[in-house]
Write a structure and sequence with these properties.
Order of helices and strands: HHHHHHHHHH
Helix content: 55-70%
Radius of gyration: 22 Å
Structural class: mainly alpha
Strand content: under 5%
Largest sheet: none
Shape: elongated
Number of strands: 0
CATH class of the largest domain: Mainly Alpha
CATH superfamily of the largest domain: Tetracycline Repressor, domain 2
Distance between the termini: 93 Å
CATH topology of the largest domain: Tetracycline Repressor, domain 2
CATH architecture of the largest domain: Orthogonal Bundle
Number of domains: 2
Number of helices: 10
C-alpha cells in the first residue's frame, strides 16, 4: 500500500506562524504611525510585511483585528513603565504622582500612538468578534490607578471616597490635556510638563483633608 502524498505547502510550525503574525503586526504598527489608520489597507500591510496580499487574512480577519494587537503592545509597554516608576516611590501619594506623570509623559512622547488608540473607534466585525475593552488583559491594568488612590485613602493622606470614580477623574484630566496639545497643536499652550504637573497636584490637593478647610 503506497503512502498518500500531501498536496501543497507544508503547514507552518507554531514558531513560524507566531513570527509571521508578529511581522504583520509590526508592519501595521509602522504604517499606522506613518499614514494613519484610515489610510492603511491590508494590501499595504502585506507589502510592508513582505508577504502576499492573501497571507495577512490567514492570521487576521482584517485591519480592525490587527490594530487591537498594536494597542495591546502599547498598553503593555505603558503599564510596565508606569509600574517601574511607581516602584521607585515609598509613600502612597508619591506612588500615585509617579504613575500619573509616567502615564501622561508616555502618551505625549508618542502622539501618533495616542491618536491611534483614542481616536480610532473600535467596532465588532462579525458575530464572534468582541470589542478590545472586553477582551484585553492589558486594559485591566488601568485598575492600578484605582488601587493607588485607594492606598492614599487607607493611609489617611486622602479623605474617604470612591477610588474608581477618582481614578476616572484623574484620567479625564490627563486625557484632556493630551487631546488639546496633540490635536490642537497650533495653539500656544503652556508647556505640557507644567500643565501635567499642575493638573496632578490639583487632583491630589482636591482629595486631601486640607482641601476641606
Amino acid at each position: 500500500m503506497t503512502e498518500k502524498k500531501t498536496v501543497g505547502r507544508p503547514a507552518k510550525s507554531l514558531e513560524e506562524a507566531t513570527e509571521i503574525r508578529r511581522q504583520i503586526i509590526e508592519a501595521a504598527k509602522s504604517l499606522f504611525a506613518e499614514e494613519g489608520f484610515d489610510n492603511v489597507s491590508m494590501r499595504k500591510i502585506a507589502v510592508r510585511a513582505g508577504c502576499s496580499a492573501r497571507r495577512p487574512y490567514l492570521y487576521f480577519s482584517g485591519k480592525q483585528q490587527i490594530v487591537r494587537y498594536v494597542w495591546e503592545d502599547f498598553f503593555v509597554e505603558l503599564f510596565d513603565l508606569c509600574e517601574e516608576a511607581v516602584s521607585a516611590e515609598a509613600s502612597p501619594i508619591g506612588r500615585l504622582r509617579a504613575f500619573a506623570q509616567c502615564y501622561g509623559n508616555y502618551w505625549f512622547s508618542h502622539p501618533e500612538r495616542f491618536e491611534l488608540v483614542y481616536m480610532v473607534k473600535d467596532q465588532v466585525t462579525d458575530s464572534d468578534d468582541v470589542l478590545y475593552v472586553d477582551g484585553s488583559s492589558a486594559v485591566g491594568r488601568y485598575v492600578i490607578a484605582e488601587d493607588l488612590i485607594a492606598s492614599c485613602m487607607q493611609s489617611g493622606e486622602f479623605r474617604e471616597g470612591d477610588p474608581q470614580f477618582a481614578s476616572q477623574l484623574l484620567f479625564a484630566n490627563i486625557h484632556g490635556i493630551l487631546s488639546l496639545l496633540i490635536n490642537v497643536s497650533e495653539f500656544k499652550w503652556a508647556p505640557f510638563d507644567d500643565l501635567l504637573r499642575s493638573s496632578i497636584e490639583m487632583f491630589i490637593f482636591s482629595h486631601t483633608h486640607q482641601s476641606q478647610h
